[in-house]
Automatic annotation (TrEMBL):
<feature type="domain" description="TonB-dependent receptor-like beta-barrel">
    <location>
        <begin position="342"/>
        <end position="774"/>
    </location>
</feature>
<keyword id="KW-0472">Membrane</keyword>
<keyword id="KW-0813">Transport</keyword>
<dbReference type="InterPro" id="IPR039426">
    <property type="entry name" value="TonB-dep_rcpt-like"/>
</dbReference>
<feature type="signal peptide">
    <location>
        <begin position="1"/>
        <end position="19"/>
    </location>
</feature>
<dbReference type="GO" id="GO:0044718">
    <property type="term" value="P:siderophore transmembrane transport"/>
</dbReference>
<dbReference type="InterPro" id="IPR010917">
    <property type="entry name" value="TonB_rcpt_CS"/>
</dbReference>
<dbReference type="InterPro" id="IPR008969">
    <property type="entry name" value="CarboxyPept-like_regulatory"/>
</dbReference>
<dbReference type="InterPro" id="IPR037066">
    <property type="entry name" value="Plug_dom_sf"/>
</dbReference>
<keyword id="KW-1134">Transmembrane beta strand</keyword>
<keyword id="KW-0812">Transmembrane</keyword>
<dbReference type="InterPro" id="IPR012910">
    <property type="entry name" value="Plug_dom"/>
</dbReference>
<keyword id="KW-0798">TonB box</keyword>
<dbReference type="GO" id="GO:0009279">
    <property type="term" value="C:cell outer membrane"/>
</dbReference>
<dbReference type="Pfam" id="PF07715">
    <property type="entry name" value="Plug"/>
</dbReference>
<feature type="domain" description="TonB-dependent receptor plug">
    <location>
        <begin position="114"/>
        <end position="220"/>
    </location>
</feature>
<dbReference type="Pfam" id="PF13715">
    <property type="entry name" value="CarbopepD_reg_2"/>
</dbReference>
Length: 801
């Protein structure tokens, strides 16, 4: 045993002796650069720097060409011998613009953004630290490219290119977050994510079904959480962050802590965050239609309407949340990397503010309408293997188990019956992704995916006076949803200036649901689907010069019907009830993109993309019948029967444009503009505007950055959506919209002026402060049931060690 131990230690020492560490620093400050990427083609290897700017480049030894990338810096190309000659220290020079950003969302593997036909936007940790978004939904909004809708403060539903909710895909550490109960209406699942624990955020615009399967129609939002970092020396590597933050508009009190502990082969990351939000105060200058200067309170078993002391408070909208993450990494050799991650998120109950705005018979419609605690838990095992062989150079196996719990709790005004529906989803997934460089000019990415969702749904009614409970109809049937897909994507470079990408995927989806006819006399007791979908894409990137990129992409995408589509019973709008329809088919999207990026004299960067999407066989809510009746009593009200049906064709087109101008003295200007139009077919053959095509919106910024100081003054805005242009399904929602001169609902244009500042006192401490909505505008983003924050003072202190 002693001999074996001695031999093992000698081998470990030998491995350490042959490992080689490089350090990458900033030319101006000499500070280490974290997350810089070193990539070589021969050998096919990659390395990334840690928080000390260090990376192990043993696998790159002997490479003739190594490219060193970091956003905001000029890309350097060196050989291993060059790096060795510089004593393994690389100096990077800041660059006004960089087209060589490394992204992963297009194929699940690291690629240069300049080789990808689709438009991709990245949000860096530095941007998140500077802007201080309160939730992951707000984090997407700071990009200026994603529109965010909110019906409650504990929410945030992204809209991308005229699509939203279950026509967009979310991934966390490469794992699909969408479940079988992601609905067509606005969803708030994205708030499960912790912005403090996200290392990289990417948004892939347009179809992503070839790689990601169902739901990736309008885009893919990819979140990579903090990765454990190994020690590159004999000592233990410890690094971390602690942040505390306060915001005045909702009396926010937030705290976050994360720590990384790394050894040679093992590393751990622990992260915990806590948020507490009071009711959100809206601005003082704007439409009075957004004011609800009362709330309902139950006193001595009687519902009473209470007049608010501050009519600008949106009551109820406060809530609290906690997030925890634990990751463990084991790297037994240079070729094998094993990672386990545990995520947990839980909110308190929170009011759905727009439902509290509804009225009936000159009184509040509801005394209570809350989402119950929203919980998310994920276990994720990721095994990466690198070996240049016949079948693959790199292999990634992801095994994941997720648990979702959400509920809805409501009680009508002066009613003694409180209803609660609880939904639980157990989601299991397997992803096997492989990449192979078949020649100097060709790379292949391929893989398989299996997903299983088990849906459990219950309903309960409780008499608040007696405490006696009884079973009521559940929101969903008991169901299983499965998906099995295989894909292949090819990247070919016929020359230095041209890159071609093609891909194809076949997906089989299976749904089995059992309906309880105790409460509703459905003419069926089960629904069974077993269908397939074939999708593909072809794209090209042409680079006439180093400062000029032209992209074109054609792609298809699909969304298979899920349990929410087939089995839901709910009040979709006043006087209407949606019932199950087990005869649904997949909807298909056909998309075309054309865009370019051009840098002029290294001082101006212009980015422009135009797109057109056709959604065929679209699932839309239409009038329906139940046992020959077009209306039924639901929640005590005679309601029109409706159901989702493959009954329409929808079209969405638009442009995304951006520009950035560098000015002398550390100043710069930038803008992001988004214009989209959508329409969908109605029953009688007419058309209506698409619900999720947001009005014209964007952000204009004036930036200043010099050494330890960073400042930004920015202007966020949304254009008007007139009553004539309102979607049919939105025009009757009095609780959401303002009234125009004719008394019709519309979404007014709005703007906010904002200022942010960051100062780095020392290598450890930094202070961020800002004022949002300086002019205290009362505004409400389109389709939202909650107004945005009024004048909001933010201060945050961060310590990095």
């Amino acid at each position: 045993m002693k001999y074996i131990l001695t031999t093992f230690l000698m081998l470990a020492s030998l491995c350490t002796a042959h490992s080689q560490t490089v350090t990458i620093v900033d030319e101006d400050t000499g500070n280490p650069i974290e997350l810089a990427t070193l990539i070589s083609q021969k050998p096919n290897a990659i390395a990334t720097t840690n928080s000390e700017g260090k990376a192990d480049i043993t696998n790159l030894k002997g490479a003739d060409i190594i490219q060193i990338h970091m956003y905001g810096y000029k890309t350097r190309t060196m050989s291993y011998a060059d790096i060795e000659a510089f004593n393994f220290k690389i100096i990077l020079t800041k660059d006004n613009f960089n087209l060589d950003e490394v992204v992963v969302s297009a194929t699940r593997w690291r690629q240069y953004a300049k080789d990808i036909p689709s438009k991709i936007a990245s949000i860096s940790p530095q941007q998140v630290t500077f802007q201080n978004p309160q939730t992951a939904a707000d984090m997407l909004g700071i990009s200026g490219k994603v529109y965010v809708q909110k019906s409650q403060q504990g929410g945030g539903s992204p809209m991308i290119r005229g699509f939203a909710t279950n026509r967009l895909l979310y991934t966390v550490d490469g794992i699909r977050m969408n479940t079988a109960i992601f609905r067509g209406g606005n969803i708030q699942n994205i708030i499960n994510l912790d912005p403090f624990a996200v290392e990289d955020t990417e948004v892939l615009f347009g179809p992503g079904s070839v790689i990601y399967g169902s739901d990736a129609i309008g885009g893919v939002m990819s979140f990579q959480t903090l990765r454990p970092q190994l020690s590159l020396a004999d000592s233990v590597f410890i690094t971390g962050n602690a942040t505390t933050r306060y915001a005045s508009a909702n009396n926010e009190k937030t705290a976050h802590f994360d720590v990384n502990v790394g050894w040679k082969k093992w590393a751990l990351v622990t992260s915990i965050s806590s948020w507490d939000y009071d009711h959100l105060r809206q601005g003082s200058n704007g439409p009075d239609d957004y004011l609800k200067p009362y709330y309902v309170q139950t006193i001595d078993s009687v519902d009473r309407v209470i007049r608010q002391e501050d009519p600008l408070l949106q009551i109820p909208s406060g809530y609290s949340q906690i997030n925890m993450m634990q990751k463990i990494r084991f790297k037994p050799s240079d070729n094998l990397d094993i990672n386990y991650g545990f995520h947990y998120s839980e909110t308190t109950s929170y009011g759905r503010y727009d439902r509290h705005n509804r009225r009936r018979n000159d009184a509040p419609r509801y005394a209570l309408w809350n989402y119950g605690p929203q919980k998310w838990m994920m276990n994720n095992l990721n095994i990466n293997h690198h070996k240049e062989g016949i079948l693959y150079d790199d292999l990634s196996l992801r095994l994941a188990q997720q648990g979702f719990e959400e509920s809805r709790i409501d009680r009508s005004f002066n009613s003694t019956t409180k209803s609660e529906q609880v939904e639980m989803v157990d989601a299991y997934s397997l992803n096997l992704d492989l990449s192979k460089k078949t020649s100097d000019r060709n790379s292949v990415f391929y893989g398989v995916e299996y997903v299983l969702n088990n849906v459990t749904s219950t309903g309960e009614a409780t008499n608040i006076d007696t405490g006696v409970s009884s079973e009521i109809a559940s929101r969903y049937p008991q169901a299983n949803w499965q998906s099995l897909g295989v894909y292949i994507n090819n990247e070919f470079k016929p020359g230095e200036k041209l890159t071609l990408q093609t891909g194809i995927r076949y997906n089989q989806f299976i749904l089995d649901a059992e309906f309880d006819t105790t409460f509703y006399p459905f003419p069926f007791t089960e629904a069974n689907l077993n269908n397939g979908a074939l999708t593909g894409s072809i794209g090209a990137v042409f680079k006439p010069t180093e400062s000029w990129i032209i992209r074109a992409n054609l792609g298809t995408a699909f969304r298979s019907p899920n349990v929410d589509d087939i089995g839901k019973v709910f009040d979709s709008e006043p006087g209407a009830v949606t019932i199950p329809n087990p005869a649904l088919k997949a909807e298909y999207a056909y998309n075309a993109d054309l865009g370019f990026t051009k840098i002029f004299d290294n001082v101006l960067k212009v980015d422009f993309t135009a797109y057109y999407t056709i959604l065929d066989n679209a699932l839309v809510r239409r009038d329906f019948q139940l046992n020959g009746d077009d209306s039924i009593f639901y929640d005590g009200q005679l309601s029109q029967v409706q159901a989702l049906q493959n009954a329409a064709v929808a079209n969405v087109w638009g442009i995304q444009a951006g520009a950035e101008l560098k000015i002398a003295g550390g100043f710069s200007l930038s803008t992001d503009l988004n214009y989209q139009q959508g329409e969908e077919e109605l029953d009688e053959g007419t058309t209506s505007a698409s619900r999720h095509a947001a009005p014209f919106f964007g952000i204009n910024r004036l930036n200043y950055k010099k050494k330890a100081l960073q400042l930004q003054f920015y202007h966020s805005f949304q254009g008007e959506r007139s009553a004539a242009d309102m979607p049919i399904g939105e025009s009757g929602k009095d609780e959401i919209y303002a009234k125009d001169a004719n008394g019709n609902n519309y979404a007014p244009a709005w703007y906010t002026l904002n200022f942010k500042a960051l100062y780095q006192f020392t290598d450890i401490f930094s202070l961020t402060a800002g004022v949002e909505n300086i002019t205290d505008q009362r505004y409400r983003p389109y389709s939202s049931g909650l107004s945005g924050a009024g004048r909001n003072y933010i201060i945050s202190l961060k310590a990095s060690f």
